[in-house]
Amino acid sequence: xxxxxxAAVWPRRRLLRAALVAAGVAPALAAxxxxxxxxxxxxxxxxxxxxxxxxxxGPVGVDLPDTPTLRRIRERGTLVQSGVHTFPGFGLxxxxxxxxxxxDAGMAQLLAKYLIGRPSVDTLVGSADARxxxxxxxxxxxxxxxxxxTANRARLVNFAGPYLVVRSGVxxxxxxxxxxxxxxxxxxxxxxxxxxxxxxxxxAVPAARPVRFDQITQCAAALRQGRVRAWSANTxxxxxxxxxxxxxxxxxxxxxxxxxxxxxxxxxxxFKQIVVEFLRQIMADGTWRRLWxxxxxxxxxxxxxPAPPELGSEPGS
Amino acid sequence: xxxxxxxxxxxxSGFVTTILLTLCAYPLxxxxxxxxxxxxxxxxxxxxxxxxxxxxxxxxxxxLLILVMIVFALPDAGLLISLFWSLVLGLGxxxxxxxxxxxxxxxxxxxxxxxxxxxxxxxxxxxxxxDLLLPQALRAMVQPLGTILINxxxxxxxxxxxxxxxxxxxxxxFNLESAEPVAAFLTAAVGYLAINLAVGLGxxxxxxxxxMRR
Lengths: 317, 214
Known about the structure:
By secondary structure, chain A is of the alpha/beta class. Chain A has two domains: 4-42 and 166-258, Periplasmic binding protein-like II (D-Maltodextrin-Binding Protein, domain 2, 3-Layer(aba) Sandwich); 47-164 and 259-299, Periplasmic binding protein-like II (D-Maltodextrin-Binding Protein, domain 2, 3-Layer(aba) Sandwich).
């Protein structure tokens, strides 16, 4: 029987484990994180995004009506929202500071400032599957996570917006000239992230074969490695990524439209009116434009902001 | 509920993919795990060290990390395997570490006196393993190996994170379109439950058949 033996060698085993971690796993991880093109490339624009100046000029709501959701937020002193933290330009967490930078993150901060006077936001991430459920059971007060307004979702949650409309684009390997029009994607394997990009692609090109990856970086890697022929995502993401990885490039193809809305609890219609009024104010006073230029605009290489979308223009909003 | 039937085809194909993943990964885990276990009890020192190294590294790494390494790091090293087989490889290699330890503990459960007796009558190591150790050890291993099969089936859900359209991935898509999280994930739960109850039933029957009468 081996049991007594095992007990005798236990300290040695622990040493061995430690050595394994040091010798085997650490270099393997380091190798995994190595991305030659990025190390050598220019400073990454999306890592320097800071929406702070836009938040500073955001309005504070006065004489807001009393609603259950607003009362909860005020008692807590923080807006709890379901957001994203891995989308450059929309919500990307800075691992050093823990701050989330981007358009959607900025919208959440502006909303918190409007409601309680300071941009105090608690962001829950990684829960795109459960956004409706989290609003229904009041785990979160709002959802600001590139949340596309659809009729199906509008049955379960209220949408304020659209606050941004994005279009889908297509990226291919840098040396691939075979994809020129949208219909060239028919029959091809195309990387997408679950959600808006996936829906837009299947609607526009039913014959394309979408492969779903969780992360932007995974889509880009799959394209670079030839695992997929193309990658479809919103144009801001594609431009941001192709700017830092020259082995892939964005094509001129543009299709579909994804109107993003702020998801709100269905059982509090008065709260939706407050948020719609908030959106109307920041779109009118230039805060929206400033936020766009500091976040999505940086991804697009310093582009000027388009006109904000018309509130309530989408079915379901 | 009607949305559930509209997406019936996708959900069904996801369910079938999950079963296929499990059916491909588990035999790989059994074979690799058995080889590793034999290495770990073999009289050859370097084999013992190598197998132990494998088990210690693979068992102590998260499955998702292993899958991401296989799916995204191997192609950079020049080896492009399809997503399905990448997932099979990852699941198989991961479960093999557990299979190895299960087989080894099963073998350790065989009375050492029998091994010594076999050695004494001059049986070579290969026959000690195949005629004496494995037949007895396998009986003790039916339940734990069934548990590993269940874990392999459940682990295949991580395919949703690396582009394989298995049950969890299809469920997520269904939910993103229909916004019916409860119906969506209950459906997925029923699918996994069906697989795993079948496994549980199978291991119980198998265990009854191979039970030793002492």
